[in-house]
Write a structure and sequence with these properties.
The protein starts with a helix and ends in a 7-residue tail after the last helix. With 145 residues, the protein is α+β, with helices and mostly antiparallel strands. 37% of the residues lie in helices and 24% in strands.
Length: 145
């Protein structure tokens, strides 16, 4: 796969965004969490993504695939060349990285398409107001002169 194909594929996931970070790395994110990075100015270009520990062990035994710097201990791999894996296999691994990161990132999609954070799910709106009033009464701070 080429850079444009990888970029289009990554941005095709729901809520996927991209931004340039660390100088020349194009980072693909879901809800602010990175699921893949693409080193644009490296020659050849490099791709980094998360995988399961089992897949990590299998991939790092192949040529041109290594534990990613700084995050290899969290089962991230880096491809020294974009053609280190076939297109279908690479797509499947990137999709799996997206799914793993999305499942652990805060918030979820509401039926209308907007995000809801996990905190919103736990506290009802009227409970927030009651908690605020009770918190003011319970503070118990005495005024000092």
């Amino acid at each position: 796969m080429k850079v444009d194909e990888i970029r289009a594929y990554c941005l095709g996931f729901p809520e996927a965004t991209e931004n340039l970070q660390w100088g020349d790395d194009l980072c693909f994110k879901i809800r602010g969490k990175i699921f893949a990075t693409l080193a644009l100015t490296a020659v050849p270009q490099k791709l980094c993504f998360k995988c399961t520990p089992e897949v990590f062990a299998e991939l790092t035994e192949r040529n041109d695939i290594h534990p990613a710097p700084y995050v290899g201990r969290y089962s991230w791999v880096i491809l020294d060349r974009l053609d280190a894996l076939g297109g279908d296999e690479l797509k499947e691994l990137v999709r799996h990285s997206y799914e793993m990161v999305a499942s652990r990132s805060p918030g979820r999609i509401r039926p209308g398409g907007s995000l809801r954070s996990r905190a919103d799910e736990c506290v009802r709106p009227h409970a927030k107001a009651a908690k605020g009033e009770a918190g003011a009464k319970k503070s118990g701070r005495r005024k000092t002169r």
